[in-house]
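debug: dumping io for the single-chain case to check the tokenizer round-trip. Nothing else runs in this session.
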Amino acid sequence: MIRPKLVFQMATAYGMNPVSAQELAVALEYFHTASLLFDDLPCMDNALERRGVPCTHLAYSEEGAILTALALINRAYALTWRAIAGCPRANQARAMTFIESCLGVQGLLNGQSLDLHYSTMPRTLETTERIAQGKTVSLIRLTLTLPAMLGGASASELRQIERIAVFWGLGYQILDDLKDVLQSAAETGKTSARDIAQDRPNIAAVIGIRGAVVRLTRLIDLGDKVLLRILESRPELEFLNELRGELQAELGRVTRRSYALAERGSA
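debug: decoded output
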């Protein structure tokens, strides 16, 4: 539940009342969960397992999974509008436009479409990161930027938060790609080796495991520089260091796994 916790912390740090902050946190988690239900469907990634249990479409049918995702989206919008209604009017219109850009055809939906058509696209870092910008970064942007926007963050702060969202969003996608290549379903809690089998984008497959680790390390470093600047003016966001630390720790775990595999292969 890292995502809703972050939304709540960001929202309250920027002065949103706790009730509205909680509604927004739940709403964004509902959007995220709905995207996973769609992503796992046979017509999408055809996954078998998610969070250590059978995917919803296997347990309750494809029809059940689709209707559940739509119910979550419907409820998410209702909660989002309620949370936005409690914020200053000057921030509301910009926030609603931002939500559409992240979830609509310029964001999440575009990323999913590119993901499905990956087999026709060049296998380059630019292509795979473009898809990640739509599928993964869009939701991280919502998590970090939307609460700050509703709370009246300055244009400078929003630019800094947006940059952190991009660096960390791409970072988490690289971690996910490394896990798909290196770890089993028992370790990740979801179907493994899915990207190569389904011919879907995977940064580790495109630039290699070592290249992916180097790229992720670079993204963490870039994020650190921006985070340091924003904490100087907004120390209430100190909790972001926790997320940064988790990203670094997860990189360490995945890196140790890759080195262990390499040693076994050369033995």
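debug: round-trip ok. The chain has a mean pLDDT of 89.
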